[in-house]
Amino acid sequence: AQQKTTIGVSLAQDDNPFYIAMLKGIRERAQELSWEVVTVSANEDKAKQIAGVQDLVAHGVKGILISPIDAVGVNAAYDAAKAANIPIVSVARGSTSPNQTLHVAMDETQIGRDIAEWTAIAIGGEGKVAMLLGPSGVPTFRNLGDGYAQVMAKYPKIQIVFRADGPLTRERGVKQAEDTLVANPDLKAIYAANDDVALGAMQAVLAADRSGKTIVTGMNGVPPALRAVKDGKLAMTVELNPVLWGRLGVDVLASYLKGEKVEPRVFIKHVIIDQTNIDAKLPKT
Amino acid sequence: MRRHSKYTWPWLRRFNLVGQAPLITLIVLCLATALMTDRFISPLNLTNILVQSSIMAVIAIGMTFVIIGGGFDLSVGSTVALAGCIAAMVMVRFGLVAGIIAGIAAGMAVGLANGLIIARLGVNPFITTLGTMVLVRGVVYLITGGAPVGDEGLPPAFIAFGSVRFLGIHYLVWVPALLLVALSWLMQATPYGQRVYATGGNREAAYLSGVAVERIIASTYVWCGGLAGLAGVMLAARLQSGQPTAGEFYELTAIAAVILGGASLHGGEGTLYKSIIGVLIMVVLGNSLNLLNVDSYWQRVAIGAVIIAAAATDRLRSHR
Amino acid sequence: MRRHSKYTWPWLRRFNLVGQAPLITLIVLCLATALMTDRFISPLNLTNILVQSSIMAVIAIGMTFVIIGGGFDLSVGSTVALAGCIAAMVMVRFGLVAGIIAGIAAGMAVGLANGLIIARLGVNPFITTLGTMVLVRGVVYLITGGAPVGDEGLPPAFIAFGSVRFLGIHYLVWVPALLLVALSWLMQATPYGQRVYATGGNREAAYLSGVAVERIIASTYVWCGGLAGLAGVMLAARLQSGQPTAGEFYELTAIAAVILGGASLHGGEGTLYKSIIGVLIMVVLGNSLNLLNVDSYWQRVAIGAVIIAAAATDRLRSHR
Amino acid sequence: MTKPAVSARAVSKYFGATCALANIDFELFAGEVHALVGENGAGKSTLVRILSGVHQPDQGEVSIDGQRAHLGSPSAAIAAGIVTIPQELRLVQSLSIAENLTLGDPPVKRVLGMRVVDRRRMRAAASDQLAQLGLSLDPGIRVDRLSYAERQLVAIAKALRRHCKILILDEPTAALEMREVERLFTLIDHMKREGAGILYVSHRLDEVVRLADRCTVLRDGQVATVARRGNFKIADLIVAMTGGLEMQPSDTVSEPGGIVLEDVSRRPDAIRLRANEVLGLAGLLSSGAGHMLRRLFGFTGERIELRRNGRLKRIASPADAIRIGIGFVPDERRLGLIMNQSIRDNILLPSLDVIARGGRIDRGEGNRLVEQMMELLDIRPRHPELPVSALSGGNQQKVIVAKWFARGVGVLLLDEPTQGIDVAAKAQIHTLIRKFAKRGGGVLVRSSDLTELTLICDEILAVHQARITDRLQRSDGFDEKRLHAAIGG
Ligand SMILES: Nc1ncnc2c1ncn2[C@@H]1O[C@H](COP(=O)(O)OP(=O)(O)OP(=O)(O)O)[C@@H](O)[C@H]1O
Ligand SMILES: Nc1ncnc2c1ncn2[C@@H]1O[C@H](COP(=O)(O)OP(=O)(O)OP(=O)(O)O)[C@@H](O)[C@H]1O
Ligand SMILES: [Mg+2]
Ligand SMILES: [Mg+2]
Predict the structure, then answer these.
(1) In a 3-state reduction of DSSP, which class is residue A160?
(2) Which helix (H) or strand (E) covers residue A50, if one does?
(3) Is the model's pLDDT at B4 over the cut of 80?
(4) Is B311 on the interface with C (CB under 8 A)?
(5) Which residues of chain A make contact with B240, given a CB cutoff of 8 A?
(6) Is C206's CB within 8 Å of D106's CB?
(7) Which ligand is the nearest neighbour of the Cα of D282?
(8) Of A11, A107, C29, C222, which one has the greatest count of Cβ atoms within 10 A?
(9) What pLDDT, on a 0 to 100 scale, did the predictor assign at position D133?
């Protein structure tokens, strides 16, 4: 019997719905191609990600899909793949390594800018804004936040009154939003680094009787966030469709393995979801 | 050396202020913040502080049991997540009460496993509970697939429990308040409580005085697990869903709160209400830094410094 | 109770297997993995394991000092990040050697602060190092702005240090190997080592025998901080940059490794090479689960279970 | 006139409200053995701790060779040539005997210019020191594997190693048997002749009379008398210590009743204990007598079968033994007390189930019991809330004994029950033990003090290598010589 092609996947996290969905896409597509998938997870620890990729190399995989935790920090992982002549494709996040074979990317800064533009319009170009950033040191979230702040800086009447980093959990969203709403009762908008944080912040807004007056924006487009947009509790979120990313990653790798020519950087589109287009996005129930 | 430090501030001891170092730290912290921002003493903020403390307070009570008994529990954070997810899963299918019971029972089961491994097999508590911390987190992800549970809607009564008040105080706050009263009584007035203190103070001497030390030690972990389970259920009510990522770093916060409250990691010392003061110190600290809009990098510096300073003040206490 | 556990397995003691429980665990783990996948014993994989262990091994050596001395250090993870970032920043401007020295010195400074607060002021080590863990992480973010340092290119010699071999073995692996030899000698053969063991075993007895216990305790934290600093520099070489988020959870892994290696959190016991065996157990465990393609949720369950099992086996050792 | 090697002038020391030493003058000359005696809590150990740099006096000063000295830490005292064996053993359990003996300044050699511990010399020195005390232990074994008496000897050996000007021994012989005591005395004699000054604290007044050139008696933190050799007799010392308290001779002789405790196994050390009987165990160091007591209390890990008042009972742990009315006073104080807890909590610990009413502790009942016990055993100071760590050694020992009287057990197993207890209190405890037996209790007591055994026992069993080798009855009249011969001494 012909031996199955095995590919390796190195995730940045395995407890984040985004990566869980992405892995689902990878698995689905791989199954269609009758490939096998070997996964390792790094949980935001760079040394662990390098170790994981080395383990994949030792395992003898044909190609690797990786969501690098850091653009530089895990270059040794790319070096290890290169040394073994295994193609390595970055998905979702990218690397500066010369050994990165391909990159399936999102434009994080642009997403941040888009959220900010949307928010600025929604609050009429003036008022106080709070930012609940992602974990410090994680480039994706730094880029998102930078894009957002860049745009807001262009509005003289918009003030960022609160910036705090933290883990991507709902609980932290509740707590920081509660505190910032006490400090700034007239807050106009809360930027949340992802949907979990946003759902937490939304709860604090409801509890403080500010619903409709303080808007909350999310990112990722996970189902509960979509429902919250539908209910009008969450102002907007950004759909990234990680399942598609996963599929795309596998397809790109497949083309490369077949020797087809592939662009070194493949961008993925993101869609802003708000009241205007939510109905089209919600799964039919 | 330790010995003479006991006698360093005799006048302080006379006024018996020294035993109250955590309380004093808390008051100073509150006053300082109140001076810097008038928002601090607003009813909304005080309520926020109480609600934010409530869940950690329940965990800290359980942790105090374990620490008085001479142990250590790193698994509470994972247990919180496990209990919250199980409660949400069961609740959706079998109703509110079943869900709550299932959540607490899951916590007690983790505690029982810890307790048996530590007390019976004599394995080091640090390693054991580090092991269950990782293992239980794995189980949480396995049963939830890593996704939040119950977003499709938990029973409204449960969600209300996470946000509604009784006599002007959130239900979430009543829970640790009542627990504090009941369990302080248990620790101070019953033979069981005395035996826990004795076991933690000197396990061999307690054993020779007829205390079933293994059972006592195991029981402290069951309390800790069960209360972490209850805290998980409360957190699920507050977050309106079971969150598999919930509770990370809770273990360190809880242990820090208990030690700030004057307990000794050598065992045999600790008071429930002081542990709760320890929790309040941690929560008020975070809250005031947020109110003052301190940059989150500087927040870390401040939190680290204040924790150390608070513990150093506590050194003025009678001993250790 | 403890007393008789000494006599439980006399035949085991005769063969003196019991002191080697960690080594046996490691061997069993390796054999089991080798049986399940032939990739395990490939030279590539064995090299990987060594390189993956090297940084944690350096940290664990320092942690062993502190734990033998009766202490505890939660701040090593943050120290690793601090040292890596400082080394990278200094290196870019003042060259390789200055960078390495600055990184190690930064670690020693953190260790010295810990040591003075713990030994002199007598503050609880858990609280103190939890405080510095948070505080130092804040400092790291402040000096780096949260972004990696040295992306623009660290000295090639430094990057080579993170990947090049000498006599077929990575430089990164030589570091803990040489340290192990030198520091084992320090701990076993010099009066200083004796004093560390004595202080950890019974601080009062050591004090009454004229040992400068405060200085000894402080020195263990300086060792730990300095070695964590060195580990941070090594990690920066491996990551080809100074990473402000590096080293998270390293403290728990390091402590777990040291305890798996047979040290006691009560102090006075511990052996450097066994701590490194503890590190290898943790690394081989992760490696084999990856090679066997165990789902990452199940990996947690397996890691938790194996850690507990390894510690339980260790209970067959002569005592405690 | 020669200057004293060490002296304390007008020294006072307070612990909170307690005055442990009030305006004390004390002198110790080179080449003399100076005994320090006094009731429990008189302040002896406090003075010792001041001279060894552990405590600093609140008032007054300490001089060495006539020079004012500041002893800020034990290492300062050691540097000044003062070596101390403290009352509570201070050994590092996790280290070997040799490492403990050389703790502080291990023998070093130079290797490549580095100071390295000379293991060979360390072991040799350790063997020598042990041999001086007649011990043939392997210096390589860990201290936590020794019996309590052996550890006491190691602690003594530790002090003997340093070439000191002044040697302070705080109750070194509390749990030692004659043979070892004799060896210690020979050594002390030797050191004295070499010119060392020796401060000797003890409650064994016969030792004091034999050994001391001078004797200082402390009472309530003050100097009651200082006397030279020949000018004091045991009776005088007692009067000076207690301020003239009459001592009643303990009553003896009672009719043995039915068997209260019987070890049903067929072992060479099986015990049978009757009601109204005080049964003594006498043996040399490591005779196994201690093990016999621990075994009956379920503290050896074995499961044993006992007949208690005729009924067969299985015992696997101390809790089982306590349940059938057995109490145990261990030789090692650490095993009897929870140091950071109050006197009250310690006394009540074994009795919690007795004083609980409806699941909660009856405070009133507990307080009454504690008060009664503190009175009965004269535990001072009378503050039940005080942590036992703040008590003097002898008072701590009384607390351990009080635990079992409070519970009202039927059988007492006592291992060195009166170690560190002053003469008056000792007599009092002897009376209590006799009374306990008289009211139908059974007592099994092991003591290294043969006189004590002859005072309180109805029968004494000689133990040698874990077997009972002889039985002596009170009715035959105790013959100390024969007893000595029986235990192999
Ligand atoms: N650490 C302490 N804290 C409070 N009080 C203390 C402390 N140490 C000793 N004391 C008190 O000081 C007094 C003298 O105690 P010390 O230990 O000197 O007596 P001692 O003569 O050695 O008695 P013993 O013969 O029982 O050993 C006692 O009343 C004791 O309770
Ligand atoms: N914990 C222990 N570990 C190993 N050996 C022990 C232990 N305790 C006692 N032994 C040994 O067992 C023998 C008898 O000990 P035991 O404690 O019964 O002596 P003992 O009669 O109490 O005498 P003493 O108290 O005078 O030493 C001794 O050789 C002693 O060294
Ligand atoms: Mg004394
Ligand atoms: Mg004995």
Answers:
(1) strand
(2) helix A46-59
(3) no
(4) yes
(5) 203
(6) no
(7) 2
(8) A11
(9) 84
Distance CA A231, CA A237 (A): 13
Residues A156, A182: contact at Cβ < 8 Å?
no
**Cα A26 from Cα A64, distance rounded (Å):** 11
| Strand pairing report for D442-446 and D411-415 | parallel
Per-residue model confidence as pLDDT tens digits over B174-229: 999 999 999 999 999 999 999 999 999 999 999 999 999 999 999 999 999 999 99
Ligand 2 binding pocket includes D330 (Cβ within 6 Å): no
What is the B208 CA–ligand 3 centroid distance (Å)? 24
Predicted confidence (pLDDT) per residue in C21-62, tens digit: 888 889 999 999 999 888 788 888 888 889 889 999 999 999
Which residue do the tokens 């009540």 mark? D348
User: Which residue has better confidence, A74 or C195?
Assistant: C195
Q: Give φ, ψ of D38 to 5 degrees.
A: 160, 165
Q: Rounded CA gap, A181 and A160, in Å?
A: 13
* B61 SS3 class: helix
Decide: D178 in ligand 2 pocket, CB within 6 A. Answer: no
Q: ω into residue D330 within 30 of 0, thus cis?
A: no
Per residue in A9-46, pLDDT (tens digit) is: 998 887 777 788 889 999 999 999 999 998 888 877 88
pLDDT at C184 (0 to 100): 92
State whether residue B209 sits within 8 Å of chain D by CB: yes
What count of other Cβ atoms lies within 10 Å of the Cβ of residue D320?
Answer: 18
Closest ligand 2 atom to residue D145 Cα is: 3
Joined together, the tokens standing for residue B179 give: 């627990």
* Ligand 2 and C215: CB distance under 6 A: no
List D residues 250-309 in contact with C (Cβ-Cβ < 8 A): 299-302
Any idea what DSSP says for residue A239?
E
pLDDT single digits (tens) B120-143: 998 989 999 999 999 999 999 999
Dihedral (C-alpha) D280, D284, D288, D291: value to the nearest 10 degrees?
60
Q: Do chains A and D touch (3 or more CB pairs under 8 A)?
A: no
pLDDT bracket for residue D162 (50, 70, 90): low
Residue A110 to residue A119: CA distance in whole angstroms: 14
Complex ipTM: 0.87
- Alpha helices, DSSP H, located in chain B: 2-5, 10-14, 21-36, 43-68, 76-94, 96-115, 125-144, 156-161, 171-189, 191-201, 203-208, 213-239, 250-260, 272-291, 296-314
Q: Where are the alpha helices (DSSP H) in chain C?
A: 2-5, 10-15, 21-36, 43-68, 76-94, 96-115, 125-144, 156-161, 171-189, 191-201, 203-208, 213-239, 250-260, 272-291, 296-314
Look at chain A and count its residues.
Answer: 285
**Can you tell me which residue has the tokens 């990165």?**
A100
Alpha carbons D281 and D478: distance in angstroms, whole number: 13
Amino acid found at D202: S
- The b/e string for B281-293 (b: 16+ C-beta within 10 A; e otherwise) is bbbbbbbbbbbbb
> Nearest 5°: CA angle at A277, between A274 and A282?
95
Burial class (CB in 10 A: 0-12, 13-18, 19+), C41: exposed
Q: Which two tokens stand for residue B180?
A: 């504090």
* CA B143 vs CA B248, C293, D8: distances in Å: 18, 19, 73
- Per the model's pLDDT, the better-predicted residue between D382 and D424 turns out to be D382
Q: Which residues in chain D have Cβ-Cβ distances shorter than 8 Å to C5?
A: 301
Distance, C-alpha B181 to centroid of its chain: 15
**What tokens appear for A177 in the block?**
């939003």
Q: What is the mean pLDDT of chain C?
A: 87
- CA B90 to each of CA A15, A35, B95, B105, D7: distance values in angstroms, whole numbers, following the listed order: 21, 37, 7, 12, 77
Closest CA to D163 of D114, D207, D125: D125
pTM score, whole prediction: 0.89
pLDDT of residue C4: 35
Local structure of residue C122 (DSSP, 8 states): -
